[in-house]
Amino acid sequence: MPKVVHVEKLGGPEHLTVRDVPLAEPGLGEVRLKIQAFALNRADILYITGQHYTELKLPSRIGSEASGIIDAIGPGVTRVKVGDRASTVPFYTTQSERHGVQGEFAIVPEGYLAPWPGNFSAEEACSVWMQYLTAYYALVSVGKLSTGKSAVIVAAASSAGIGAIHTAKAVGAMAIATTRQPSKVDFLRSVGADHVIVTKKGVDFSPEIRVATDGKGADLVFDPVSGSFSLDYCNGLNWEAKVLNYGQLEDQDPIIPILPLTRVKATFHPYSMFNHVMFPGELAEGIAFVMRNIREGRFRPIIDKVFSLEETREAYHHMLGNSQCGKIVVRTADGSN
């Protein structure tokens, strides 16, 4: 029987197991993928701790990003065939036990398949869609980032942060990266950041934002931290700036500094890419944007480290250690061939 990653209890990676399950068959409008690699995301941690957009229903499979070969198709599937290579787009589901992708096979609705870029490895192909679509809808669709504007990209050495740096540069904007680790400064410059600010919890870095933007302030902040972190940059915003909050690295709801935001007519926007990919037109638009930038050489995922399927729990602990620069990937036995 194939092996999958499973969570049985609410909590951290210690509750993850790799276990044998019966091979499922695709239903109406679904395909089955023989997985070669899957990527880890912070959203997976939020999911198994019960803090994610998607409600945790135990027991459950987990994960939303993978690459593999289609080995079965259900009734009504028209765009792909058995033998095609494909990647998965993260999406909201009420059937997480059926639609989790971390393991040796995955059942995925046809509408949430995306291209496997031709010259990408399996590890790269599974690492595209969360980071670049998350950045595209936040920075471009919602944030209206464009030439001459600036974006502060928080926790920028993450895969989502790297995707945001690449996206900001692709639309002609300035990318101001932040990190709490001085050791990551050179890496962030190497992936395209125009400025890098090393931050400390509770220390206002608005002056550094003002310096980087010639006194104007940032037009957009892409913030996965939450808690009180916005207090550290709220005085560095431009007129009508947008703050897009998409995570809870501090394990707290965000504190919104009303007065500083009101003074510059800024807005605070709770954000999830799931609210965009659920609409076929928006999903097609996002995929087209990402594929165009891949073809033109602007986008390519950076892989931090690759683990085996049996090392999945260790991969999650590596992510929680916050030392990574780029995507953490697990390769299945099939992907090793």
Q: Please, could you describe this protein's structure?
A:
The protein has helices at residues 42-48, 96-99, 122-125, 129-142, 159-170, 185-190, 206-212, 258-263, 274-277, 280-295, 312-320; strands at residues 3-7, 16-20, 30-39, 60-61, 65-73, 85-88, 105-109, 113-114, 150-153, 174-179, 195-198, 218-223, 237-245, 267-270, 303-308, 327-331. Helix 8 (258-263) links the parallel strand 13 and strand 14. It has two domains: 3-128 and 301-336, Medium-chain alcohol dehydrogenases, catalytic domain (Quinone Oxidoreductase, Chain A, domain 1), CATH 3.90.180.10; 131-274, NAD(P)-binding Rossmann-like Domain (Rossmann fold, 3-Layer(aba) Sandwich). By secondary structure, the chain is an alpha/beta fold. The strands form three sheets. Strands 3, 5, 6, 7, 8, 15 and 16 form a seven-stranded mixed beta sheet that branches. The protein has a six-stranded parallel beta sheet with strand order 11-10-9-12-13-14, with helices on both faces. A three-stranded antiparallel beta sheet has the order 2-1-4. Helix 4 packs across helix 5 (159-170) and helix 4 packs across helix 10.
